[in-house]
From TrEMBL, chains A, B:
Biological process according to GO: Mo-molybdopterin cofactor biosynthetic process
Matches recorded under SMART domains: MoCF_biosynth
One Gene Ontology molecular-function label: molybdopterin molybdotransferase activity
GO-annotated cellular components: cytosol
Cited InterPro entries: MoaB/Mog-like_dom_sf, MoaB/Mog_dom, MoCF_biosynth_CS, MoeA-like, MoeA_C_domain_IV, MoeA_C_domain_IV_sf, MoeA_linker/N, MoeA_linker/N_sf
Protein name: Molybdopterin molybdenumtransferase
Entry's EC annotation: 2.10.1.1
EC class of the enzyme, as a word: transferase
Native source organism of the sequence: Mesobacillus zeae
């Protein structure tokens, strides 16, 4: 077959990111404008030129103590055995801290070391040395001294130094103006009604906030329709009013991806396509001397592209170095595959378990905003690298503070809605501690505990033989490891079906009969194991279930699927059905327990977790959800 | 002697800082108020409660590609050898990325993989698998999913997730209001006239900016005079309108330090004096249920006290952990002495030289704002520790980003005003590189190169025998080390005297005859060595010079001293005299050269430095200062 035959598109370039970046940086030659701002309001602003002191601090010889100013020579006779009397006015004057020292005096004696004889006379028993307890002119700041070079980001204490030096207005770099143009027929403003095919425009707002955080001034324009003339006009307008133009999206090579053609018509295109995953469909060009950056529509691609190609321009304008993220070494919990020829940017969860950092990749989908929100770190795989093996040590850039990662409880295993509640209760007690959970299913949670990749796993694994939950699995799969199984919840599993149960689902047999579109869970999920058992009991084969192979990763995902489709059905917990206003037909009462390493269970964090679970307020909050009860007076099982 | 006899004061407590902190933290029981803010404007705000998704993202099954939507079952026959035709409307519809998939279809085929036969018909040669290229409902976000727990600081990408989830307003913690009351008769607002004894009120502005940076809302009040009733009223007013009250200063134990008595009268004092240097005179109390923090007047003490006692309260209110600074291990370039019984907070310069971090203490004076501004790190010496030896490795908290420290050129030795200019020129060429200089004098600079504590030292050391500059010193003191002496400047040294030279100073003899108050430089400074030589030539003794023992640390300090005193005189460089509008009587033309390690001289940074020095623009800027010329066509001397 000739693959080209079906290809109506131009292909994107695969230009190395660094090369593309260097090109626009050298094309970006706009000199920063300066502005004077009042010093008190200059926090975080960047000095546009060296700043010099207008006055010295102190600008006079100042007393450093409460006491008396004297001429040191007058005091040389003073001795413990031979107290010396000094006369006010002639031989001393009283001074407080900060007072000016009269020119005839050159030392200060602390108030604690003088004795008042009468209103006019004091007694001292020790001589003063010249200049003692005097802050000389310019002790802190000398007039004409350079306080800051250009390119300095002003911190609170810096403002104090400026004011002390009489600099009440400071020359700072004007914030570069970055126009942001959202384009797309499918976009609606965030408060407009929702309909299938409509997408809320939120990238523009996010871009504006990134730009603000990096020190630029965003100018977010109206949404522009996918119309070549309108896009052209918007680009021209933006180059008139701003220093850098960002256009989103239409940066790919689709039939409605006009952006690249418009930039070509109006100016120059340097790059169309960089060798990265995600983030490939980027356009870098120039119109009327202004750099234009076309960023992809998918949020993760867009935010990364913005960081690669807009942040360096802002930093260049402000004359500041690009901030770099802290890096740490982590051990990989899973193998990561990467293709040659493009850099991969993998969002990672990082847990600190048993004294080491363990990292696992989150979804790579460019459309999943939450993968960036949830990520603790970013693994950048070079274009020449084919990936990494499980257990390998790699370097990741941190997206969250190291302390936050170190203080997080890594929760693995089955998804339950009470875990979020548990996390909230815990955080309001212990601000520093939070629960970071990944929903991988009971079996994977159990394995995470075995591999030392998690502190706690939520599991609800029904043993088909014993009809008991969890215990036999722990015995079999964690033999020899010191773990604790903590009885946590009794919860109801049942059929999640459309309101009014139009298909009349009451058991697995009904699913097959009604050709219901079943929303299954991923392999290793406790709910899937339960479903398989129900099929087995009914004598049904997976092939007889429509959708058996379609895997959802949480109860809420199952409920969302049913919500969108009258013919769908799923198995899950009551609160998921309730949250989406669906019907729920109970099937089983199951035990959802917490599996922990013994060392975590006995740790400070482990104690905090257990005491939250045992608290009245938490148990009451769980009760209010419905379909649940927390096991009271739980007795931990040690293995 | 009975020391108590002279003591009219109450002594401050020496309460451990951590104990004092724990007390006010447990007394601070104000629950945070919540407010709803538009999501687009919530950058940096802290969620006040868990935030859940209002809608799923996508909220419909969406096409992930441009192409056609099909029913996968209709495509199973397609094969490269047996292309399959599909009819528009019945068997497929065109979809663009983001479009909704009609309910009768369950897969998307990319536009690149279809061939249009005619207007109504397309041809495919490969079957589709169910759900391929479809973003299912909730792929990114599932309705009712918890997006953020409480206490989460919102970042740009988080705002995207909120908007995608239909959360257009977000519940955040109201910013706690922190009243700031500056007190003191000596204080004037920053734009008021200057007079001896008047101090510009700048602490309040700095406090307000710290509070803002930490997430609070500052309320800076007018300056309050040292009057018990006025202070009392200000405290009462502040407790009415704010969550935390900061009062500055009057926190010590002097005769006008009313604050502690006022707090005692109106409420409770928990602490008066913490065991820290600086920062000891702190007051912690409570009035009308509001925590009151009395901070010392000296800037460095004040800022540290604010960080110890106000930041934790703000963090507690917002339910966020206190941010911690990155720590690194450094080698001490000097011995540091610390008394028992109090923690010492030493501001440190840190240089990265020859692959190791070398740290040296800055001044410990609590009144020197610039010591905080200049500090790269903070060394906290526990109360039980007597200090550290030179060469010891200690841990310091970083006050500047690690990258910035790593990229800094450590400049030691003699002070010259062109070094600031050099730093500016360098920074505008290479944003990441800057010069960090400490003015320790030529001899100390030479020693810093010897000990591997600096990259470059500016030296102007006159050999009394040879009358040559620098070379003999380098030969003698750096024998066997690979260093480079780079000829940099010819500059004029001379007498710096009051305008009109009222004392008629033209040589060292005049100083003695006129009983001029001489402003000398510190030991090891090239200018002091020159002065000693001049004395020697004139046959004078140091004792004959008034002020010989008073040491200034820079040319500008000498000039500032002369500026403030008609009877003073000093020896220094022309631009220092010019900057302060003083007279200058030339004495000598001297060579101010740059001494570098050979490895630095040959490094990328070294090259950059030399190429700035050799540039026309830099040499022209130096020429404009006056009294200088850059050595043209300089030939580096290797040793």
């Amino acid at each position: 077959m000739d693959g080209k035959r079906y290809n109506r598109k131009i292909y994107l370039e695969d230009k190395p990111r660094q090369e593309a970046q260097a090109e626009i940086l050298s094309a970006f030659t706009i000199s920063p404008e300066r502005e004077m701002v009042p010093t008190g309001g200059a926090l975080g602003r960047i000095t546009a030129q060296p700043v010099f002191a207008n006055v010295s601090m102190p600008h006079y010889h100042a007393s450093a103590m409460d006491g008396i100013a004297v001429n040191a020579e007058d005091t040389y006779e003073a001795h413990e055995q031979r107290p010396l009397h000094l006369k006010q006015g002639q031989q001393f004057v009283y001074v407080d801290t900060g007072n000016s020292i009269p020119p005839e005096f050159n030392a200060v004696i602390m108030i604690e070391h003088i004795h008042e004889v009468d209103n006019e006379t004091i007694e001292i028993i020790e001589p003063a040395t010249p200049w003692q307890h005097i802050r000389p002119i310019g002790e802190d700041i000398v007039q004409e001294e350079m306080l800051f070079p250009q390119g300095h980001a002003l911190r609170p204490a810096d403002l104090g130094a400026l004011l002390a030096a009489g600099v009440t207005e400071v020359p700072v770099a004007k914030k570069p103006v970055i126009s942001i143009i959202p384009t797309g027929n499918e976009l609606v403003v965030s408060d407009a009604g929702r309909a299938p095919g409509r997408i809320i425009e939120f990238n523009g707002t996010v871009f504006a906030n990134y730009v603000r955080e990096w020190g630029g001034e965003p100018a977010l324009s109206q949404i522009v329709k996918d119309d070549p003339d309108k896009i052209k006009q918007a680009l021209l307008d933006a180059t008139e009013t701003s220093d850098i133009v960002v256009i989103n999206a239409g940066s790919s090579a689709g039939s409605k991806d006009y952006t690249v053609h418009m930039i070509e018509e109006l100016g120059t295109v340097f790059t169309h396509g960089v060798a990265t995953r995600p983030g490939k469909p980027v356009i870098l060009g120039q119109i009327n001397g202004k750099i234009v950056v076309g960023v992809p529509g998918y949020p993760v691609s867009a935010y990364l592209a913005l960081e690669w190609f807009v942040r360096p321009l802002i930093c260049k304008y402000l004359q500041i170095p690009e901030p770099r993220r802290q890096k740490i070494e982590v051990k990989l919990g899973r193998r990561i595959v990467s293709g040659m020829g493009a850099e991969d940017f993998i969002r990672m969860n990082i847990g600190y378990v048993n004294g080491q950092f363990i990292a696992n990749p989150l979804t790579r989908a460019a459309g999943v905003t939450m993968s960036l929100v949830r990520a603790d770190g970013l693994l950048v795989i070079p274009a020449s690298q084919l990936g990494y093996e499980q257990g390998e040590t790699v370097e990741v850039e941190l997206l969250k503070p190291l302390e936050e990662i170190k203080n997080s409880i890594v929760f693995s295993g089955s998804h339950d809605l009470t875990i979020d509640l548990l996390s909230s209760h815990l955080k309001s007690r212990e601000t520093e501690t939070k629960i970071v959970s990944s929903h991988v299913g009971s079996m994977a949670g159990l394995l995470a505990i075995r591999k030392g990749e998690a502190h706690v796993a939520g599991i609800h694994l029904l043993d088909p033989q014993t009809k008991e939950y969890n215990v036999s699995y722990v015995k079999k799969m964690l033999a020899g490891q010191k773990v604790v199984l903590y009885p946590f919840l009794k919860r109801k599993q049942g059929w999640i079906v459309a309101k009014g149960n139009p298909l009349g689902i009451h058991n697995a047999g009904d699913l097959a009969r009604q050709h219901a579109e079943y929303a299954n869970r991923q392999k290793g999920a406790g709910t899937r194991i339960l479903f398989d058992l129900l099929l087995d009991e009914t004598g049904l084969d997976p092939e007889q279930i429509n959708g058996y192979d379609r895997e959802m990763f949480s109860h809420l995902s199952v409920a969302a699927e049913v919500k969108g489709n009258e013919k769908a059905a799923g198995l899950g917990i009551f609160p998921a059905a309730k949250a989406m206003n669906l019907d729920f037909i109970p099937v089983a009462d199951e035990s959802y327990d917490l599996l922990m390493t013994a060392s975590f269970f006995e740790s400070r964090q482990g104690n905090a977790l257990i005491s939250v679970i045992a608290s009245e307020t938490f148990q009451a909050d769980v009760g209010r959800i419905g379909g649940y009860s927390v096991v009271r007076g739980a007795v931990p099982l040690y293995f």
